[in-house]
Write a structure and sequence with these properties.
single chain, 479 residues, alpha+beta, 3-stranded antiparallel β-sheet, 11 helices, 24 strands, elongated, secreted
């Protein structure tokens, strides 16, 4: 009996010493325990505590942990100070952390935001603001402009980003979600205008999401430019435009007149509304190194943009421009039509008629050849030469007065004299030719049937017959 009592006293003494030693390492009003209530804080969230039981220092009875991580009497929780220590990167608060309290704590300390990390123990991590200066150099070689961006460490919300950027003197801000979300501050548009230099055609050039004009505009606005537009070739590049410093809003295209005025102030010939974007264009006749072809009078030739009632279609646009004496028309935007003159269309292609008369890019596809010639202000086109690999454009004089909008097909009697050293082959014109093809060749796949006929120099092909197993090629055959 005495032996058991002595063993119990020995174990109790060791436990008391261990507990007493651990108690000396804890802070004021804290004791060491094997199972700590991690939710014993002055500001409970009202939610069920889901933190596990851990060993460590906990507050004494009738004490709770405040936002500073100190144990104070529970009755003094409402009067406790909200001040945070001198730590500038994070707040370590023992065994508690909620995202709402962490955000408020970090914002009081001058940080943008904060969030709880749950690596080893709960911890409030404040997100630092890192300001970096990125130089943007304009295409005219002007002085580089600086563009500041505030990068949030872990996450970003548009509301917090706007508030942070406006507090730093920027116009606005938005979250950029690329590889790692960060806050991009937008400098005021007037700060990015080079007032000392001459009018310029465009600013910073980048891919910017083209051919989507909306993404290009956002790309340019993030860099301090009022608006951006996709430019040729292939509308693959984003051009940021610098308009003159004015009080009117430069976003969108409110009216055709205001768009044209903005473009003329920047040295362009004019401007037109392309969707919700004001697009400036330059007339090639105004270039110093441009020499017009002989016999062309450009004094009275100007491109115009007319407004179309309701909705612009190709037929309405061509009718309006034809009544005004123009030969080409194209819809720009929803309610506007742009008219091109015949001479201007030739100027756009450098006036190289011989190149268009002998272009082997579109034959033996006669339809592409004819369309290519009509676009270049000829009456049509034919495929000539050996195996009909040369596209020859036909002028009004050669065609003998036929309609300039008629597309010429090889073999029609249009009175076209052959040019020197040019062999004109008159093909035969059977209505159609049928041949059976297996599954690997095409039918009932109409696209593969059409390609098979094109390889045989027919115009097109369709699937016919029982079960659509026969590919029928139609059109002229190249001898």
């Amino acid at each position: 009996m005495n032996e058991y009592f002595l063993n119990f006293c020995f174990i109790f003494a060791i436990g008391f010493q261990v507990a007493h030693g651990q108690d000396e390492e804890c802070g004021v009003n804290e004791v060491y325990a094997e199972c700590v209530n991690a939710c014993n804080t002055c500001h409970p969230t009202g939610r069920i505590c889901n933190l596990g039981c851990v060993a460590g220092c906990t507050c004494k009875p009738d004490h709770s942990r405040n936002r500073e991580g100190l144990c104070i009497p529970t009755k003094l929780c409402n009067d406790s100070s909200e001040a945070i220590g001198d730590d500038t990167t994070s707040t370590t608060s023992g065994f508690w952390c909620t995202n709402s309290t962490c955000k408020r704590t970090c914002r009081r300390r001058g940080f943008t935001n904060g969030h709880c990390t749950w690596h080893i123990r709960p911890r409030c991590q404040c997100n630092e603001i890192k300001v970096s200066n990125n130089s943007l150099e304009t295409s005219t070689g002007g002085v580089p402009e600086t563009n500041s961006s505030a990068a949030l460490e872990y996450f970003c919300t548009n509301r917090d980003c706007r508030q942070t950027c406006r507090a730093q003197g920027f116009k606005d801000g938005r979250c950029i979600r690329h590889i790692r979300p960060y806050c991009q501050c937008i400098r005021h548009a007037s700060l990015a205008i080079d007032r000392e230099g001459p009018p310029i055609e465009g600013g910073h050039r980048n891919s910017g999401g083209c051919p989507k004009v909306q993404r290009c505009s956002r790309f340019c606005q993030n860099r301090g430019f009022p608006v951006g537009t996709c430019f040729s070739p292939g509308y693959r590049g984003c051009r940021c435009l610098k308009y003159s410093d004015s009080n009117e809003e430069s976003e969108g295209c409110p009216s055709l007149r205001r768009c044209a005025q903005r473009c003329r102030l920047n040295g362009f010939s004019g401007g037109t509304c392309h969707g919700h974007t004001c697009r400036c264009y330059r007339d090639r006749r105004e270039d110093a190194d441009f020499v017009p072809p002989p016999g062309r009078n450009f004094d009275s030739i100007r491109d115009i943009v007319v407004e179309v009632p309701e909705h612009c279609t190709s037929r309405k646009c061509e009718g309006l421009c034809s009544n005004k004496g123009y030969s080409q028309a194209r819809c720009v935007g929803r309610n506007f039509c742009k008219c091109f003159s015949k001479a201007q269309a030739i100027v756009d292609y450098d006036g190289d008629e011989e190149h268009h008369r002998n272009s082997g890019s579109y034959c033996p596809d006669v339809h592409r050849c004819a369309r290519s010639c009509v676009i270049r202000q000829f009456v049509g086109g034919v495929c000539v030469g050996r195996r009909r690999q040369t596209c020859r454009c036909i002028s009004e004089e050669e065609a003998g007065g036929i309609s300039r909008y008629r597309r010429c097909i090889p073999g029609q009697e249009v009175g076209i004299p052959p040019t020197p050293n040019e062999e004109v082959i008159q093909p035969s014109f059977p209505n159609e030719r049928e041949f059976d093809i297996d599954d690997s060749e095409g039918c009932p796949n109409r696209e593969r049937c059409r390609l098979s006929c094109r390889r045989r120099h027919f115009i097109h092909g369709v699937c016919r017959g029982n079960g659509l197993r026969t590919c029928v090629c139609e059109g002229p055959i190249a001898q």
